[in-house]
Specification:
Blueprint lengths: L3 E4 L2 E4 L4 E7 L6 E9 L6 E7 L5 E3 L7 E6 L4 E6 L8 E9 L14 E2 L3 E6 L1
Parallel strand pairs: 2-11
Antiparallel strand pairs: 1-3, 3-8, 4-5, 4-9, 5-6, 7-8, 9-10, 9-11
């Protein structure tokens, strides 16, 4: 079982930046990708960004493209989400997740990931 711990959330103003971190409790050689999802009050969890663990290839939701950057530190089993030019509509709980090699669901859906962190609150005031 892999445990994921997010950190770096907080309250900021529109236009500010935040960086979220997600550290895995142990090295897992079955990690195919890691992703970030977010869930605003009253809404479903939505895909935000994903990164392939070996190649480093990234993909983003249209709503964050050009403002958010996902990256990883393979040596420390950590994934980051750099969030710039934050908007009030970015307010949500942000979750990181691990996708295993034997998970054949889409990288863009929550069922494409096997392990989840507890979430980090990000609040952007206008």
């Amino acid at each position: 079982q892999v445990q994921l711990v997010e950190s770096g959330g907080g309250l900021v103003q529109a236009g500010d930046s935040l960086r979220l971190s997600c550290a895995a409790s142990r090295r897992t050689f079955s990690t195919y990708a890691m992703g970030w999802f977010r869930q605003a009050p009253g809404k479903e969890r939505e895909f935000t960004a994903t990164i392939r663990w070996t190649s480093g290839n990234t993909r983003y939701a249209d709503s964050v493209k050009g403002r958010f950057t996902i990256s990883r530190d393979n040596a420390n089993d950590t994934v980051y989400l750099q969030m710039n030019s934050l908007k009030p509509e970015d307010t949500a709980v942000y979750f990181c997740a691990v996708k295993s090699y034997n998970n054949y669901y889409s990288d863009y859906g929550a069922n494409g990931y096997d392990y989840w962190g507890q979430g980090a609150q990000v609040t952007v005031s206008s």
